[in-house]
Amino acid sequence: xxxxxxxxxxxxxxxxxxxxxxxxxxxxxxxxxxxxxxxxxxxxxxxxxxxxxxxxxxxxxxxxxxxxxxxxxxxxxxxxxxxxxxxxxxxxxxxxxxxxxxxxxxxxxxxxxxxxxxxxxxxxxxxxxxxxxxxxxxxxxxxxxxxxxxxxxxxxxxxxxx
Length: 162
Prior knowledge:
Blueprint: H1 2-13, E1 22-30, E2 35-43, H2 44-51, H3 70-81, E3 82-86, E4 89-91, E5 94-100, E6 104-111, E7 119-124, E8 135-142, E9 145-152, E10 157-161
Parallel strand pairs: 1-8
Antiparallel strand pairs: 1-2, 2-6, 3-4, 3-7, 5-6, 7-10, 8-9
């Protein structure tokens, strides 16, 4: 027991804890609205780092210091780093907004006019330019079917057929 306690103290004191580089994306196909409803969960500090214009200008997201242009900066970032092709054709998403939690931001996107879903090709390069260890999980829900993709450097996109 004493050995376990000593090892625990050692690992905690030597910086054993490591930051977790991951985002999570849920894509739900809404047959009634014929749309793809997309929710992307990212760490706030990583998003701030990714979209700030220079290291001298700290960009705040989700608190009282947030600048008016933050939503447009987030949208522009996602347009560069997150793409979806529906049935083999590039699809344009609408940025619906964001929601802040303690240390994460939920970003909401929607792709309209998806009458039939046969395949979905998702490219998610969010934060991959910042962190070599970045992993982007994508969960896709179509009716009773659930598919998942694990995207990372070297495998930034994945295709799912229905």
